[in-house]
Amino acid sequence: MLYIKDLKSCWIRRLSRLHFLVTNHTMRFHRLISEQSVASTSVRGRLKKIYKNMKTLNTRKIVLLVCLVALAIDPLFLFIPVIDSHRLCFTYDKKLVATACVFRTLIDTFYGIHIIFHFITKHIAPRSQVSFRGETTVYSVAISERHLIFYFIVDIVSVLPIPQIMVLSLIKRSDSLVSKKILKYTILSQYIPRSIRIYPLFKEVSRSCGTVAETKWIGASLNLFLYMLQSYVFGAFWYLSAIEKKNRCWSDACAKSSMCNLTNLDLYCVRGGGDNSHFLKISCPLIDPGEITNSTVFNFGMYIDALKSGVVESRDFPRKFFYCFWWGLRNLSALGQNLETSNSVGEIFFAITICVSGLLLFSVLIGNVQKYLQSTIVRINEMEEKRRDTEKWMSYRMLPESLKERIRKSEDHKWRETRGTKEESFLRGLPKNLRLEIERQIYQKLLKHMPWFEDMDDRLLDSVCARLKTVIYTEDSYIVDEGEQIENMLFINRGTVIVTEKKTTFFRSVGEFCGEELLSWALLDPHSSCVPISSMIIKARTEVEGFVLSADDLKFVAAQYCRLHRKKARHISRLHSRKWRNWAACFIQAAWTEYCRRKLSKDLGEEEAKLHSTIQKDDSAGNTHNLGGTAFASRLASTVLRNLRVNASRKDRVRQISLPEKPVDPKFPMDEI
Fold first, then answer.
1. Where are the alpha helices (DSSP H) in 577-626?
2. Beta strand spans in 383-468 (E)
3. Where do the TM regions start and end (predicted)?
């Protein structure tokens, strides 16, 4: 029994130790998994932070531009095959091969980096929802996985380096007869997904910023670019199809004649070529389709222009590029009406595609240009109508020509600045919260520079922003003339004004304001209905844009502010009041004069005391003819006379500058506690 108990206790200890080891390893395993999860989350968070730190608008524009450039790079592969005119065989343009492969690889690498970012941070909304902004939407969890997989597949298919592999590996093989057709269909199969990925990009850019789609010239230029790009693509396919047509003609001629011992592989310069050049030259004559009378003559159809012009035999890339581009643009614009095709099904289908594509693209181009220009045309018509009404009114009132010119200049300036957009009506049409946000963004930064508004709370500052109105003054126009009533307080947002008061002239620029008399009037006499009169001339030195606050609105804001900040309001009212400034200057001058007078009296008293002490010492010493005392007395007398003359002139000056009456402080609605 004792042995059984010992054995049982031993097994219990072993089982407990085993349980401890299993528990320890399990905890380590869970800790390792959590660390990996945290690391993965941290990596994703870092990538997300990089996405958020990117400049949203510039990033979207760059990616959209790269996609458009990629569409222009792909057709370059179709220009690689060339016909050797001397040996009458097919070869390849090696310089164009290198150029096309390098550009295609660089663009695909850039877009591949974007795909990696987008795939790792897949909790970020796809391009059709947020697009390159890097921001997580509230509905990102509910985003359909089907859309995410679809766009991911489109991106992967778009960046596969199939054309590079073909031109680098198949071009030197002896069985490269089919390489042209494979290359053509490969470019076509990749061109479709590379075009699909542009649409969500363009829609997101136009919806997010409006800069590309809503600006008339950029939008119209983008549509025109797509139209010309399609012409270039059709020209490239036409070029390669012409070479294929020539290849078919040679193959058919060799198959029908016993004089030709060439195979299809021998038509390539890699295998030699040139042995039967004379036979190939006479077997495929270049005759226009309308001039063919014999059915045995090969009909080149719509590709006869490419063969006659010699672009298929040229290695001069600019020459054949522009010729093919012109062919595509001409036939796309003419909807393929001038094309004379053969009875080949592929050629007829190509002509039908050109006709339908031209019809669709031309309709889209005209519609978009009309849409982009319509709003501006409507505003221009409104401006012209307003200008005609203004001219009629000026003629009816018989205004002088100089005044008419100033009115025209002012109206033209307002049109250039606003483009016919009425800012006040536009803001009134927005929701209240959005309108407040816009007003804060526009006005608060400027108001914070003003001493009267820097301590205002947000609610009162919002009330001020809601009452501000935008004004524009042309160069050399008078804002306020001397003797006029000051109806508005101007806050300068752009430009410079000249302020002239009597013989003093000074400038005020961005961040400053004019019409401080109105501020003092609103603080000192809030119940008065008579606005102050300007003693200054305020004139626009340059084109001035600013915001004005009317007298009634200023009185309302001043009453609310004084109720909350009585001590600060008193200080500001004294600071910006002209009466308080004049009184303070006179008071300081009078105090300084009094100080100088007292100091002079004190100095004279000290001099007299020294004189008396010297005389007493001389009398006690019995020296009545002391030369030192005489000299000191003479110096003291001259000093006293000079000081008396200076003091007399100062007294006369003080009498001329009399101290004005002390201004009255404003009466605030509640006492300071």
1. 578-621
2. none
3. 62-83, 148-171, 224-241, 348-369
Q: How far is Cα of residue 259 from the mean position of the Cα atoms in its chain?
A: 70
Strands (E), 118-170: none
Residues sharing a CB contact under 8 Å with residue 152, sequence separation 6 or more, in sequence order: 115, 118, 119
Determine the residue type at 222. Answer: L
Check residue 654 and give its pLDDT. 46
Rounded Cα distance between 225 and 459, Å, is 50
Our measurement of the distance from residue 578's CA atom to the centroid of its chain's CA atoms, rounded to an integer in Å, reads: 44
Secondary structure element (H or E) that encloses residue 89, with its range? strand 89-92
Residues whose CB is less than 8 angstroms from the CB of residue 169 and which lie 6 or more positions away in sequence, other chains included: none
Alpha-carbon separation of residue 159 from 59, 90, 109, 152, 586 (angstroms): 19, 29, 8, 11, 82
Structure tokens belonging to residue 176:
């490269």
Q: Dihedrals φ, ψ of 538, to 5°? A: -110, 120
Read off the amino acid at residue 98. Answer: A
Which of the 8 DSSP states describes residue 297?
Answer: S
Beta-strand ranges (E) seen in 465-571 are 469-473, 478-480, 488-494, 497-501, 504-508, 513-514, 537-540, 544-550
Statement: 467-576 belongs to CATH 3.40.1190.10: no
pLDDT per 10-residue tile (average), the chain, 673 residues: 50 55 53 48 53 55 81 86 78 85 87 74 42 36 55 79 78 56 79 79 62 53 81 91 85 74 59 60 78 79 87 87 92 86 87 89 76 69 80 85 81 67 68 74 70 68 78 81 82 84 79 75 69 82 82 75 56 62 78 81 71 64 53 59 56 54 58 41
Residue 127 class from Cβ within 10 Å (0-12 exposed, 13-18 middle, 19+ buried)? buried
| Burial letters 419-443, b for 16+ CB under 10 A, else e | eeeeeeeeeeeeeeeebeeebeebb
Residue owning tokens 């004019």:
514
Question: Contact, 162 vs 183, CB < 8 A?
Answer: no
Would you state the structure tokens that stand for residue 464, as one six-digit string?
A: 């001020």
Which residue from 222, 226, 276, 228 is spatially nearest to 250, judged by alpha carbons? 276
CA distance 340 to 336: 9
The amino acid at 389: D
Report which residue type is found at 249: C
Amino acid letter, residue 303: Y
Q: What Rg, from alpha-carbon coordinates, does the chain have?
A: 46
Which amino acid is residue 648, in one-letter code? A
Distance CA 430, CA 467 (A): 16
In the structure encoding, which two tokens stand for residue 120, read together? 């790792």
d(CA 219, CA 209): 13
DSSP state of 178: G
CA distance 417 to 427: 17
Dist CA 245 CA 312 (whole Å): 11
3-class DSSP state of 389: helix
- Return the closest-CA partner of residue 502 out of 541, 538, 539, 535: 535
- N residues, the chain: 673
Interatomic CA distance for residues 452 and 572, integer angstroms = 7
- Helical axes 179-196 vs 56-73, angle rounded to 10°: 160
CA distance 604 to 597: 11
Q: pTM higher than 0.70 for the full model?
A: no
